[in-house]
């Protein structure tokens, strides 16, 4: 049975899932009836200074794979239709560059200001981690907060300390857009 995290909750993957190597980070949401919203999942692979270790470690719809081969974005889902994960990130944990101490996962609405879209048009947003080898869901964080006035949300992050990886359920909304995240972490 998967662990259900609440906002701010932490799960030590290294201690509770020893031997875990390949994971799928699934992100999902439901668009409220009568609406159409294009969301983009992005990943920032950060060093100890809180910045990208290099520009190529920003993984998103225009850069689907990290240079170390550890992370792969499976592509942009422009409609959010369907019951499964809307966007997925595949991670091979042993291959992650040793300089990466944090992997930040965000979701932003494409052209939110121009289209006047926000997270209030969505229901049931979540992030989950699945063991690729067994297809077992390890943990899930259902974003229980309302982000009605936000155009983007930091869903969660993987944090490495003393050689151990933990997942932190962030759930932090903002209106900085994808460019705002790039400006903060580049």
Automatic annotation (TrEMBL):
It comes from Microscilla marina ATCC 23134. The keyword Repeat does not apply. Keywords: Tellurium resistance. Residues 1-185 form the TerD domain. It holds the Pfam family TerD. GO terms for biological process: response to tellurium ion. The keyword Glycosyltransferase does not apply. It comes from the Bacteria. CDD domains: TerD_like. This is Stress protein.
